[in-house]
């Protein structure tokens, strides 16, 4: 079953083509890492897939109404700003809005889901703390918890581990992997190619105004792709804990 399908998706910003003719399908039980250099169009591709910016072509999520889309996908943008000093528990509980009538109180099950999401990101005990008082990393984890609490088949997150310390980067990626056991999928942009290689079941490489490669980490992180799209030389091997990726040098012009 496809949770997201894009067909011939193209986006121009300010009259400049950013994404051309992208085709991509994400099925159940996948952790799909969207990788590529700065400015390659990763965020643009995700926002277009959600119908948040104008695009030509088709996206199955963009055609849904707001309620149906909120039940199909949890979206975590790069912007981590929280405007109001809402309690962390109330912030995470916003993820339950698509599943209950307007102004209805949280059910016992809702409270359980929120508590479980907070536990998964290591914020149990932070329930009453004002979200605006959190550190940048804690705020990121609270917003990840909100996405988890939404309990959608698909989670889409734009650089969700940026700004987290190494332990929380790894635990967050493992949490995403754990969702696949429930048939849920995660589509995330990520710059750390080492973590992408280790935790993602599949990588989509964006470059040259489109999707340059799509496949397993070993199929995508090839010397040819790394040289052409990133301009680097790197080493990829299989270690005891999984794939190990190490950048070696920047290639000359």
From TrEMBL:
Keyword Nucleus among UniProt keywords: no
Residue ranges of domain ABC transporter in the record: 4-233
A Pfam short name: ABC_tran
SUPFAM superfamilies given in the database record: P-loop containing nucleoside triphosphate hydrolases
Protein name per its UniProtKB record: ABC transporter ATP-binding protein
Keyword vocabulary terms for this entry: ATP-binding, Nucleotide-binding, Translocase, Transport
Gene Ontology molecular function: ATP binding
Transmembrane segments: none
InterPro entries for this protein: AAA+_ATPase (IPR003593), ABC_transporter-like_ATP-bd (IPR003439), ABC_transporter-like_CS (IPR017871), P-loop_NTPase (IPR027417)
Lineage: Bacteria, Pseudomonadati, Pseudomonadota, Gammaproteobacteria, Chromatiales
């Amino acid at each position: 079953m496809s949770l997201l399908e894009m067909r011939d998706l193209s986006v121009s910003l300010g009259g400049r083509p950013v994404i051309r003719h992208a085709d991509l399908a994400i099925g159940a039980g996948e952790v799909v890492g969207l990788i590529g250099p700065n400015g390659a169009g990763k965020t643009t591709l995700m926002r277009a897939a959600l119908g948040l910016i104008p695009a030509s072509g088709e996206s199955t999520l963009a055609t849904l109404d707001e309620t149906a889309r909120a039940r199909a996908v949890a979206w975590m943008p790069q912007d981590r700003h929280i405007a109001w000093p809402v309690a962390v528990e109330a912030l995470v509980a916003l993820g339950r809005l698509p599943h209950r009538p307007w102004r209805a109180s949280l059910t016992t099950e809702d409270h359980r889901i929120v508590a479980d999401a907070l536990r998964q990101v290591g914020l149990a005990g932070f329930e009453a703390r004002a979200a605006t008082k959190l550190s940048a990393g804690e705020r990121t984890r609270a917003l990840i918890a909100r996405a988890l609490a939404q309990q959608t088949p698909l989670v889409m997150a734009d650089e969700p581990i940026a700004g987290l310390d190494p332990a929380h980067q790894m635990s967050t990626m493992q949490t995403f992997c754990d969702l696949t056991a429930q048939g849920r999928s995660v589509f995330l942009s990520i710059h750390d190619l080492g973590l992408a290689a280790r935790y993602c079941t599949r990588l989509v490489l964006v470059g040259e105004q489109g999707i340059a490669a799509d496949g397993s980490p070993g199929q995508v992180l090839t010397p040819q792709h790394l040289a052409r799209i990133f301009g680097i030389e790197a080493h990829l091997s299989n270690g005891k804990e999984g794939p190990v990726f190490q950048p070696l040098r920047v290639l000359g012009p």
